[in-house]
Structure prediction request, 77 residues.
Amino acid sequence: MLPLASAPYTLPFVGPGTYLIFGIVLAPVYVMLAAWYLGEPSDGRTAGLGVAYLAGLTTVLWGGLFVATMVIKVAFF
Prediction:
């Protein structure tokens, strides 16, 4: 049985959407990252720059959503 419907959650911020986002939605990103390192011609500097860019973008998006969630919590609850 998949843990998508299990509650209460044992880890903070881990819900059903987390498995969906990291498992299915980001599958093309995983393939792209693998292609950067396993494909030919392989350029480590460019691949590292791409990974850093993706990590930074992800951090900014998730951080912004976290701040927005906390503002909503304080403002309405």
User: Anything to note?
Assistant: Residues 4 and 16 are 5 Å apart (CA to CA). Residues 44-76 form the longest helix (33 residues). The radius of gyration is 17 Å.
